Amino acid sequence: MLRCADRGIGMTSAAQISNPLGSALRWWLRELATCAPTALREAVGRRLQTLIVIYGPDQVILRSGRSGKAAEIGVIDLDVADRSTITAKLKGKINLRRALIVLKLPGVQVLRRRIALPLVASENLREVIGFELDRHTPFRVEDAYYDYRVAERDHHRNRILIDIVVAPRTIADRAIEALKGWGLIPDRMSVANGDAPDDGTINLLAATTSVGQRMHVLSRVNTVLGLLAAGLVALAIYLEFHRQHQILAAYDAELAQQRAESLEADAIKKQVADLLDSGRYIQQHRKDQPLVVALLDELTQRIPDDIWLTQVRVQGDQLVLSGHAPSASTLIGLLEESSMLSQVRFTSPVTPDPKLGLERFNLSASVARDGGS
Fold first, then answer.
1. Pairwise CA distance, residues 324 & 326, whole Å
2. How do strand 50-55 and strand 100-105 relate by DSSP bridges?
3. How remote is the C-alpha of 205 from its chain's centroid?
4. Alpha-carbon torsion 61, 63, 69, 71, what sign?
5. Ramachandran angles phi, psi of 85, nearest 5°
6. What is the CB neighbour count within 10 angstroms for residue 140?
7. What is the DSSP code (8-state) at residue 99?
8. Quick one: how far is CA 23 from the chain centroid?
9. What share of the chain is helix, strand, coil (3-state, %, to 5)?
10. Among 149, 154, 90, which residue's Cα sits nearest to residue 120?
């Protein structure tokens, strides 16, 4: 069954924040592994060995672990420990390319403390413990590696009991740098507990290992998931740009249609304006010129019956008359008395017509624009 005890993911660091997915995946696979049958776990253990390095004040103890069992490889004094010595000890006993490297610090160099926190702190235990670390230990959060496990949940007292493990950063960093000098990059860091096997519940280093330097199953899965996440992000960005492009294309089409409709409306407005101007011109022209009927009525009243008209023509504001009269000169006086006519004059000399015994005349007059009103 899955272990019921809660635990942290590792030290608070930039690497942990930048790789939460890998840390969660490693934790989930470790928990899932405990549910697998023993035969399957042993098969996996044969493929992924564990190298345990116990870094003491004076010596280094090397052990290989498989399926919860640890076999001692050798003990080397720190004074003579170097890359060649460590490589010689491990040669033929463990494959470092496929091994999980666990750094363990002696118990005397690590502080263990049980603290009680409010039950509501369960959702953010790591952050709460980081804030409370300097109250319960001599260390500040930036000066130590720490991890925890939940010892008990007391719902009656509304509290949670936490076992915290704290390692001074100065001691832990010295051990980490030593291992790196030997060509060993630790994947986990915990506490040496005599000959008891490491149950994997405490990891002071959780997310600080370089995934790219480990060619085992967990690193490959983490890489694939990272690439998949990047692909999904790229796909989401592409889909968003595609959606925005479609929206802009729709806006452009609608704008083009509205522009065409606007141009058509402007053309119709211009036509209407032209028609209105034409109508106003006609109305004004009719207003400015007297009606022909009124003009003919005026001529009928002004011209005596003994005067014969052979031509009556209106050209713009000019009236042209031709005909015969007993005395053509009297016609000019009669027409000038009309309010509709002015500037009455002969356009050619008056000539006598012997056959009719009358005078032939041609005259013109200006027609008043206001119709004499």
1. 7
2. parallel
3. 37
4. negative
5. -65, -45
6. 11
7. P
8. 30
9. 45, 25, 30
10. 154
Report the C-alpha gap between 341 and 367 in whole angstroms.
5
Q: In sequence order, what are the residues at sequence separation of 6 or more whose Cβ sits closer than 8 angstroms to the Cβ of residue 109?
A: 57, 167, 168, 171
Paired tokens of 309: 């008209």
Structure tokens at 12: 């608070």
Assess contact for 19 and 211: CB atoms under 8 A: yes
Domain map (residue ranges) of the chain: 14-229, 292-367
Residue 180: φ, ψ to 5°? -60, -35
CATH number for the domain formed by residue range(s) 292-367 = 3.30.1360.100
Hey, what amino acid is at 365? A
Q: Which CATH class, in words, describes the domain spanning 14-229?
A: alpha beta
Phi, psi of 343 (to 5 degrees): 55, 50
Alpha-carbon distance of 189 to 150, in angstroms, equals 19
DSSP state letter for 196: P
| Tokens 């407005």 -> residue | 269
- How far is 152 from 363, CA to CA, in rounded Å? 132
What pTM does this model have? 0.45
Neighbours of 188 (CB within 10 A): 22
Question: To which H or E segment does residue 296 belong?
Answer: helix 292-302
The CA distance from 150 to 217, in Å, is 29
- What dihedral angle (degrees, nearest 10) is formed by the CA atoms of 266, 272, 278, 279? -160
Q: Which residues of the chain have pLDDT under 50?
A: 1-19, 43-47, 67, 196-197, 207-216, 371, 373
| Helical pair 20-33 and 217-288, crossing angle rounded to 10 deg | 140
Angle at 48 (CA atoms; ends 47, 53), nearest 5 degrees: 145
Concatenating the DSSP letter of every residue in 298-335 gives HHHHHS-TT-EEEEEEEETTEEEEEEEESSHHHHHHHH
Q: Measured between alpha carbons, how far is residue 83 from residues 54, 183, 184 in Å? A: 16, 7, 9
User: d(Cα 177, Cα 53) in Å, to the nearest integer?
Assistant: 13
For the CA atoms of 129, 146, 44, 75, what is the dihedral angle to 10 degrees? -160
The closest of 189, 161, 194 to 175, measured between CA atoms, is 189
